[in-house]
Amino acid sequence: xxxQASGGGLVQAGGSLRLSCAASVRIxxxxxxxxxxxxxxxxxxxxxxxxxxxxxxxADSVKGRFxxxxxxxxNTVHLQMNSLKPEDTAVYYCNADFGRGTDCWGQGTLxxxxx
Length: 115
What we know:
Blueprint: E1 3-6, E2 9-12, E3 17-23, E4 32-38, E5 45-51, E6 56-58, E7 66-71, E8 76-81, E9 90-99, E10 102-105, E11 109-114
Parallel strand pairs: 2-11
Antiparallel strand pairs: 1-3, 3-8, 4-5, 4-9, 5-6, 7-8, 9-10, 9-11
């Protein structure tokens, strides 16, 4: 399984970006797909995830600003990020949870929010 993350870039505070995570296999078979981020000097943290039945979960810091969604037909999970803040600056990674303790990580995509 391969995950291809895209959509990162440089944006001013208050702006928006849409990240995409394209899988090489059908995503409906995954328990969940999540977006994580890692800022310089900090641990990787969960931003949002979505289960195979569409249940979503968000970090408190992004609730109301970020929306995770899935397009099963295109095997892609999106992360719409609005009202971006400088503290959202990080490398964002997508992760597929297959269950039974197995998962897969995509390469990161850098999001930089300028003040």
